[in-house]
Inverse folding.
DNA sequence: AAATATTTTTAGACTAATCTAAAAAAAAAT
DNA sequence: ATTTTTTTTTAGATTAGTCTAAAAATATTT
């Protein structure tokens, strides 16, 4: 089996590849894991020995099929646990991340399959992120930042880019929730802020906020 | 906070004191944790530094109030998780121990209080062991091994001594379940085995089995 | 294309938890 | 009251993961 730490490295590498599309640098991993580049290099050697990553000195890393499978299973567990916490234990979407970071390392195939069944095989987690299935298949729905839309466009909110509690709490206070219809009333040229309507309420949001709200049209 | 390993030592010490009533020896801990005496000595120094145990070289150990509290919270989490697994995720009582050994180290006060609420504040776990409350109070119900009873005595099964999957599975196959009424039909002097009636079925059990079934009269 | 800056790796040290082997203390046997 | 046995502790190594500082490789600038 893989250690807690190895699992966290694989997950970090997976997510970095997911957003950049390219191989991942030592420094990028160090920053993500909040450790030093030297530590990352050590771990990369170990993961390469275990055939979990493709690694050549100075050339960046990518995941092997095996490494990707491990990463996807960690992400599956993380997102299913988040779903469980929100749906059944009365947690808010901004409270579940740290607990799921711990729970994702619990090692039991039966446990995670039973949780999945208990939750009725959800497709997305409380933040709208897709949940990989038990074979590690990830169904990606393509979505766009709200900031890309034009005046009078309408869309449905499907996710967030920033997952920080403070951003999620801001959305709560603004009454912006997953599944809401959002209509762009106006685009303010001066600072690229938006006037939108959600839940029959009209409000202004900054371009920075709009960039972190994912929608489908 | 305390490490995973420290928590396991405290739990082991608590359980050894619980069954012997006395201070605990280095060797006893080593055997329980499945490690070597030298490793135990090292850890005892560390736990003593943290004021979690009373320890003087060669004199055995006991828990401080603080150490006992930590041990009881780990046991609380273990038993609540076992209950959750059995009651809501369709696990059998012989399957939950190893998973609960992992889950008991998840660190979140809110999580465990929500699980407790979700389960409706159960008093005992799936094996009949009492669940400490959130203040670390443990309600012990006194029970006796079935082997202590006399011919024609009746009793209710409330727990087990041996928690091994093979023993629990044996009880399942014999149709002996927590809460069942058990009546002693006969005591066979030769090998101290017992003829009992449970669920309207009559069967023979060895004295060894009877010693591991806890009952109240 | 050389000089400079940045990134990555290596070397060597540190911590937590473990181990084996030897020494010291306590308990049991004579 | 010695001697012997058992238990416990110490001393010194080992492993996983981390770190700092220095060296090597790559990338950027001029």
């Amino acid at each position: 089996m893989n250690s807690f730490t190895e699992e966290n490295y694989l997950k970090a590498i997976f997510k970095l590849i997911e957003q950049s599309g390219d191989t991942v640098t030592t420094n990028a991993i160090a920053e993500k894991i909040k450790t030093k580049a030297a530590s990352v290099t050590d771990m990369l050697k170990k993961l390469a020995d275990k055939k979990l990553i493709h690694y050549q000195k100075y050339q960046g890393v990518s995941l092997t099929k095996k490494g990707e499978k491990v990463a996807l299973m960690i992400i599956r567990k993380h997102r299913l646990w988040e779903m469980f916490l929100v749906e059944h234990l009365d947690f808010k979407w901004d409270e579940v991340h740290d607990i799921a970071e711990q729970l994702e390392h619990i090692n039991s195939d039966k446990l995670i399959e039973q949780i999945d069944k208990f939750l009725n095989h959800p497709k997305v987690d409380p933040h709208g992120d897709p949940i990989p299935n038990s074979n590690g298949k990830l169904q990606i729905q393509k979505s766009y930042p709200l900031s890309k839309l034009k005046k009078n466009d309408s869309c449905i909110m499907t996710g967030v880019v920033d997952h920080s509690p403070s951003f999620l709490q801001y959305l709560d206070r603004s009454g912006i929730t997953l599944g809401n219809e959002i209509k762009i009333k106006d685009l303010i040229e001066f600072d690229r802020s938006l006037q939108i309507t959600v839940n029959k309420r009209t409000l202004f949001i900054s371009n920075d906020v709009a960039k972190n709200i994912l929608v489908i049209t």
